[in-house]
């Protein structure tokens, strides 16, 4: 399998799940501005959607959308919970994707300051729910699962965009807990982020 990624982008969540689960994964970096992969291929010819993550499977087909890739890699790695918790994991992935990740949009573009401030308020408000649910250490309790990797990437983006998490002690502790995981550290190093 090959993951098309950009350092620190939402594709980092998939990368973390693969490393945490001990999966063998080739990595190919994508320059998202130039739409060129590190081996010099036009990325839009690989993924017409033009964005990461994209996962090339062993049969040569391509799987896109973080929500699908996180569940797929989680299943491959035995990291997706079973029973009702499987749906709880998918519920979190959906929430992070549509309510948190997408709220960062204005912060990545030349938006007016007022729009950026509103986006930051919304992100803080959305994260508050995770803060309340993190009593066990991870989103689904005491064990790491794929949505944790996605939430971790969102918290890194908070740092980058100066969204203060000081009022959310569980999230702050969760970020440190994730950073201390060997798989997370390895994925960060592989992306040149540590
Ligand atoms: N709907 C996609 C969105 C992925 C996405 O937002 N990717 C960003 C990086 S985090 C990207 O590649 N942006 C570049 C672009 O859209 O051209 C998913 O959930 O996987």
- End-to-end Cα distance, whole Å, is 24 Å
Which ligands, by name, code or SMILES, are bound?
glutathione
Mean of pLDDT? 97
Q: What profile does the largest beta sheet have?
A: 5 strands, mixed
The chain-level structural class is alpha+beta
Radius of gyration: 16 Å
Structural account:
This protein has 194 residues and is α+β, with helices and mostly antiparallel strands. It is 51% helix and 9% strand. Glutathione (GSH) binds next to loops.
Features:
single chain; alpha+beta; five-stranded mixed β-sheet
Short description:
The protein has 194 residues and is an alpha+beta fold. The protein has helices spanning 11-20, 43-46, 66-77, 84-100, 113-133, 146-160, 169-179, 182-190; strands at 2-5, 26-31, 36-37, 54-56, 62-64.
What is the fold's blueprint, element by element?
Blueprint: E1 2-5, H1 11-20, E2 26-31, E3 36-37, H2 43-46, E4 54-56, E5 62-64, H3 66-77, H4 84-100, H5 113-133, H6 146-160, H7 169-179, H8 182-190
Parallel strand pairs: 1-2
Antiparallel strand pairs: 1-4, 2-3, 4-5
Helix pairs in contact: 1-3, 1-6, 1-8, 3-4, 4-6, 6-7
Glutathione binds at residues 9-10, 32, 50-53, 65-66, 97.
């Amino acid at each position: 399998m090959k993951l098309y990624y950009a350092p620190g982008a939402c594709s980092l969540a998939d990368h973390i799940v693969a490393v945490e689960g001990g999966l063998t994964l080739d990595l190919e970096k994508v320059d998202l501005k130039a739409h060129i992969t590190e081996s010099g291929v036009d990325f839009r010819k690989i993924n017409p959607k033009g964005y990461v993550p994209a996962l090339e499977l062993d049969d040569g087909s391509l799987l896109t959308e973080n929500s699908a890739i996180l569940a797929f890699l989680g299943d491959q790695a035995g990291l997706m919970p079973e029973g009702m918790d499987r749906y709880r994991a998918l519920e979190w992935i959906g929430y992070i994707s549509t309510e948190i990740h997408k709220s960062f949009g204005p912060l990545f573009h030349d938006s007016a300051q007022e729009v950026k401030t509103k986006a930051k308020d919304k992100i803080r408000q959305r994260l508050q729910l995770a803060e309340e649910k993190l009593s066990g250490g991870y989103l689904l309790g005491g064990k790491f699962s794929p949505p944790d990797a996605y939430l971790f990437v969102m918290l890194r983006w908070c740092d980058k965009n100066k969204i203060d998490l000081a009022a959310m002690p569980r999230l702050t502790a969760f970020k440190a807990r994730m950073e201390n995981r060997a798989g997370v550290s390895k994925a960060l190093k592989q992306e040149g982020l540590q």
